[in-house]
Amino acid sequence: MAEARGKGQLILVAEDDTTNQKVILHQLALLGYRAEVAANGQDALQRWRQGEFALLLTDLHMPQMDGLQLARAIRQEEGKGRHLPIIALTADVLSVRQRIIDGSGFDDCLSKPIQLDVLGDMLHHWLPGAREVAVEAPERVPSSTVVELSVLRELVGDDEQIIQAVLSDFQVSLRRSAIALREAYIKGDARQVGAIAHQLKSAARTVGALAFADSCAELETVCKAGQQAGLTPLISQFERNLTLVETSIEEQLIPIGLNNR
Q: Phosphohistidine (modified residue): where (predicted)?
């Protein structure tokens, strides 16, 4: 880590979802980079203040301080003669590009889930003397239609241990988030339901649980619109897709003993 810092190649990643953390750290390692992870914007700001980072990759939706607040705080503090490249990680690229134009503090953005070759090109563009690593697209293999592992393989390659570890982490966070979402729904807290659905949507897309991600996206949209009455059928749909995803992941983790039940 100290060597990467000394060469001006150390990357700071601000991301609160553990599945996405694991995936992006592995992607950066494949590309030849070292990185530190902050679980929220406030933690990322403190790390930036304490160390020399070459670039920041930041999610937008995080607790305590979001990505937009983080970018603005850094711009206010860095002063003349300094400029940290800040890349937003988002599913809403068009909105972020408008924010870049409006001077939000971001330099560029990447669409989540992040393709490995696209990430490599972005780092090469923004980091002086960035290393170029040839990235081969992994061969597509048949996978469950509930959890399409080909999606995850395109992000992290064919390392089965990494794939299984990402699935295992997702399984744990999925169960925890599902419990929190149900509790928020029972309390009538549509805002919290939407926030949890947003986080689940991002992680689900990363592992290839695309139908489940779509159901989360629908929940998020209805919650943003404040349509509490429209939640009930979507919650039922969410639960059905959740059961399918949990079963699919359990079946794929059992062969190597990584199931977390």
A: 198
Domain CATH for 199: 1.20.120.160
Torsion of CA 139, 142, 147, 148, to 10 degrees: 40
Mean per-residue pLDDT pooled into runs of 10, the chain (261 residues): 61 94 93 93 95 92 91 90 90 70 81 88 81 48 71 90 93 94 91 92 93 92 78 88 92 61 46
Which contacts qualify for 76-85: CB closer than 8 Å, 24 or more apart? 77/49, 84/48, 84/53, 84/54, 84/55, 84/56, 85/54, 85/55, 85/56, 85/126, 85/127
Domain boundary among the residues 135, 168, 193 is at 135
As a residue count, the chain comes to: 261
**Domain total in the chain:** 2
Query: Which structural domain, as residue segments, surrounds residue 119?
Result: 2-135
Kindly state whether residues 171 and 219 are assigned to the same domain.
Answer: yes
DSSP state of 229: G
Q: DSSP letter at 63?
A: S
- Asked, for residue 128, whether it belongs to a domain, the answer is yes
**Alpha-carbon torsion (53, 56, 61, 66), positive or negative:** positive
Contact (Cβ atoms closer than 8 angstroms) between residue 44 and residue 58: yes
